[in-house]
Amino acid sequence: MTEQMNAVGLYKHLPISEDNSLVDVTIDKPEASGRDILVKIKAVSVNPVDTKVRANGEDEEEPKILGYDAAGVVESVGEDVTSFEPGDEVYYAGVISRPGTNSDYHLVDERIAAKKPQSLSFREAAALPLTGLTAWEALYERLGISTDEDKNKGKSILIIGAAGGVGSIATQLANEAGLTVIGTASREETVNWAKDHGAHYTINHRKPLPQQLRELEIDAVDYIFCLSSTAEHWDNMTEAIAPQGKICSIVETEEHLDLTALQQKSAAFVWEFMFTRPLFETEDMQEQQQILTRIAEKIDNNSVRTTLTETLTGLNAEQLREAHRKVESGKMIGKVVVEAE
Question: A GO molecular-function term, please (predicted)?
Fold first, then answer.
């Protein structure tokens, strides 16, 4: 008889105000094979992608399990696994095309998991994978920023949405890379948070950005990382970007973007989607394991901090609904984590 486990899933894609938007379910406990590792989940984090997937889609015949951040302990490994063994403490973000982490146990490809930072608890580690991978890939791969501090002297980056989950990591990494970091924030608490995490200056994303930059005696920025409403900020970004600069966004849009506005500046626009490598199983898929390993090293040497701000206890539908509500409120600073009891 197949062993069962508890999970939180959905059958209908509903507003979080509905009690059955997320429900407790019992499903088969998976078994590790191939390059998969089976992880006993200790904590998960909720991201905007969780809320978007929950709210949009067709009815499900089988419960759809969400969750794209986790920290836990390896229970067993597939026959082709080389990086882990039972008992290892790991953290990872998973992939959007497979069942998520909101369950007692979870299968993940070893190539996108890494050993968690030794100095962090499971809940502190669970706040990091998706945002850490997104920030790292955006800065160092999509925008092509050098990790050599000397090469970044005199260069600047504008991070739109600096106090959120990704922004909180991106400001730290950009500061460490030697860039002048300008973060956007609109409330006193988010301004303080952004500055505390590496922003040299803050400006208000609810007001025209180029004018505020000029008030800081910054005529243009070399890089822009957009974490909020790409279309809303498009005109501001195309005006603020320096000639031959680069803009990266993680926020999808149904509106057409005027790429011609970047032509005279020979400026580039690129997307960052953290799930690309595991979704398409690209040849460099294991790079995500390497990135998470580097982030863990930075955490353990105190050059980067976890961005956990709130913990809920109990990996069940009630606590996950509350976490979704917090993320959807638009007022989250840092990350919310749900810890298994």
Answer: oxidoreductase activity
The average confidence (pLDDT) of the chain is 96
- 160: nearest Cα among 93, 232, 218: 232
pLDDT for residue 2 = 83
Does the pLDDT value for residue 331 go beyond 90?
A: no
Reduced 3-state DSSP string for the chain: CCCEEEEEEECCCCCCCCHHHCEEEEEECCCCCCCEEEEEEEEEEECHHHHHHHHCCCCCCCCEECCCCEEEEEEEECCCCCCCCCCCEEEECCCCCCCCCCECEEEEEHHHEEECCCCCCHHHHHCCHHHHHHHHHHHHHHCCCCCCHHHHCCCEEEEECCCCHHHHHHHHHHHHCCCEEEEECCCHHHHHHHHHCCCCEEECCCCCHHHHHHHCCCCCEEEEEECCCHHHHHHHHHHHEEEEEEEEECCCCCCCCCHHHHCCCCCEEEECCCCHHHHHCCCCCCHHHHHHHHHHHHHHCCCCCCCEEEEEECCCHHHHHHHHHHHHCCCCCCEEEEECC
Options 3.90.1010.10, 3.40.50.720, 1.20.140.10, 3.40.50.1380; CATH for 132-271 is 3.40.50.720
CATH match of 4-128+277-339 with 3.90.180.10: yes
Question: What does the pLDDT look like over 48-57, one tens digit per residue?
Answer: 999 999 999 9
Tokens of 65: 């399990």
Judged against a pLDDT cut of 80, whether residue 233 lies above it is answered with: yes
What pTM did the predictor assign?
0.96
Taking the domains of the chain in order of start, what are their residue ranges? 4-128+277-339, 132-271
Over residues 319-334, the mean pLDDT reads 93
Same fold, 4-128+277-339 and 132-271: no
Q: What's the confidence (pLDDT) of residue 330?
A: 83
pLDDT of residue 200: 98
